[in-house]
Amino acid sequence: MGGRGWARAWLSGRGVAERAGAAERADELPGSVLFACTQNALRSPTAEALMKYLHGRRVYVQSAGVRPNPIDPFVIAVLDEIGIDLSGHRPRAFDDLEDDYFDLVISLSPEAHHRAVELTRTGACAIEFWPVLDPSLTEGSRETRLDAYRTFRDDLLARLRRRFPLPGAPVLG
């Protein structure tokens, strides 16, 4: 994995000092965020899609998994309900990342958190662990399972809004 090439291009016009503290302050957006989970099939691609939905190109966002698997069809369905198309997502492993420099890595599973620590060991990168329930473990009818995925989506969206408020929006506690 290369240096900071894409990050510098993406963050052109932002100073190093500005980037350094961005991940630590909820009222500022980091320049780049990596969401990580175990399979990059549900939790981290959802977080990536929701972050892009909220902030567009203001933040460079990617997702990766420890052991990538195909995207979960239930998450495609519940994101489609709010106008987000995740059907084109291609699962990616940590080793598939174009670069290993991010201002912030948010891990969504314990296994991904361990991998994120390894990834960032030599860099100045903030890491946050957001343990979230895996809705794919829900059993029952299709509607019961979809309700679990909707709850997951809505909870994650609320957490993203609290952590990365929209410009001009009040910071939610």
Question: What can you see in these coordinates?
Answer:
- This protein is an alpha/beta fold.
- It has one domain: Rossmann fold (3-Layer(aba) Sandwich), CATH 3.40.50.2300.
- 39% of the residues lie in helices and 12% in strands.
- It has six helices and four strands; from the N terminus they run H-H-E-H-E-H-E-H-E-H.
- Strands 2-1-3-4 form a four-stranded parallel beta sheet, with helices on both faces.
- Helix 3 links the parallel strand 1 and strand 2.
- Helix 4 packs across helix 6.
- The longest helix has 22 residues.
- It is globular, with a radius of gyration of 16 Å.
Assign the structural class, choosing from mainly alpha, mainly beta, alpha/beta, alpha+beta, or little secondary structure.
alpha/beta
Please summarize the sheet with the most strands. Answer: 4 strands, parallel
Number of domains: 1
CATH homology superfamily? Response regulator
> What is the H/E order?
HHEHEHEHEH
CATH fold descriptor: Rossmann fold
- By DSSP, the count of extended strands is 4
Arithmetic mean pLDDT: 83
CATH architecture: 3-Layer(aba) Sandwich
* Distance between the ends: 37 Å
| Net shape | globular
Number of helices: 6
CATH class: Alpha Beta
Helix content: 25-40%
Gyration radius (Cα, Å) is 16 Å
Portion in strands = 5-15%
Please outline what is shown here:
The protein has 173 residues and is α/β, with parallel strands linked by helices. It has helices at 5-10, 16-22, 43-55, 73-80, 110-120, 142-163, and strands at 32-37, 60-65, 104-107, 126-129.
